[in-house]
């Protein structure tokens, strides 16, 4: 699981075409509006929050901010440690969860939500959806969301992230379910732990204003990631960075 992640969770392909589709959709919406349909009719069957199918890779506020995102949990060992570190530093992050892990550790999902972090659907068991039909994707995403909602009733599931960054048709499906497709600008390749110092170096040298950073709290021994997060938060703040959540469009 973690090995295949290495080559594929680096880029977010399809951004340009998604932008184009998004523009087309906006155009179609304005045509419909000018045809006399009211906005209420258009949005009545959709999600409460307006979300488009663009894969976002930047923070909500931009400027000298950064968003930390953690994939493949919740993990019974490393997620609680990470939550403790984030709490101690007063940082809110985003957690991209597997449905199978949510089913195993629902109390951790409740804790993540209760501590003010954002939730992200990361499929049931890290399936590569690159070649899936919209119906197959929808079924998987809804199953995952149902488990998250059972674990943390009332919690908002703000984002969806495709395993391996292999988006296929998933951005449109995620958007139709009210979830913002969430990519990243910096991956520190922490799935093969290279030492805490090296992870710290990769974050500090790779970070850019407004970046969404991809890290992992599940799928293996994530002690080095947790330590690197603990060390980099004060270093980033010393450089004038503040912490933000990924954009929702
Ligand atoms: Zn993943």
Automatic annotation (TrEMBL):
Residue intervals passing through the bilayer: none
Alphabetic keyword roster: Signal
Keyword Signal annotated: yes
Domain NodB homology: 64-244
Pfam family, one: Polysacc_deac_1
InterPro entries tied to this protein: Glyco_hydro/deAcase_b/a-brl (IPR011330), NODB_dom (IPR002509), Polysacc_deacetylase_ArnD (IPR050248)
Gene3D superfamilies (UniProt xref): Glycoside hydrolase/deacetylase
Signal peptide residues on this chain, from the entry's feature table: 1-50
Protein name: Polysaccharide deacetylase family protein
């Amino acid at each position: 699981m973690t090995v295949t992640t290495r080559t594929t969770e680096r880029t977010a392909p399809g951004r340009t075409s998604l932008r184009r589709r998004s523009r087309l959709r906006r155009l179609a919406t304005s045509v419909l509006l000018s045809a006399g349909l009211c906005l209420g009719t258009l949005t009545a069957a959709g999600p409460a929050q307006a979300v488009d199918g663009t894969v976002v890779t930047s923070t909500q506020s931009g400027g000298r901010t950064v968003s930390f995102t953690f994939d493949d949990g919740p993990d019974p060992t490393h997620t609680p440690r990470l939550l403790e570190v984030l709490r101690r530093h007063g940082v809110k992050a985003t957690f991209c969860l597997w449905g199978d892990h949510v089913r195993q550790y629902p109390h951790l999902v409740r804790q993540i939500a209760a501590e003010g972090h954002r939730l992200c659907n990361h499929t049931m068991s890290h399936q590569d959806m690159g070649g899936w039909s919209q119906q197959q994707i929808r079924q998987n995403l809804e199953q995952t969301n149902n488990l998250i909602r059972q674990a943390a009733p009332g919690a908002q599931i703000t984002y969806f992230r495709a395993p391996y960054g292999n988006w296929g048709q998933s951005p449109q499906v995620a958007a139709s379910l009210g979830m913002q497709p969430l990519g990243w600008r910096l991956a520190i390749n922490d799935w093969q732990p290279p030492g805490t110092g090296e992870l710290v170096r990769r974050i500090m040298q790779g970070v850019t204003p407004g970046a969404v950073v991809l890290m992992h709290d599940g799928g293996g021994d994530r002690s080095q990631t947790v330590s690197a997060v603990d060390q980099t938060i004060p270093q980033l703040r010393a450089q004038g960075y503040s912490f933000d959540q990924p954009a929702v469009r």
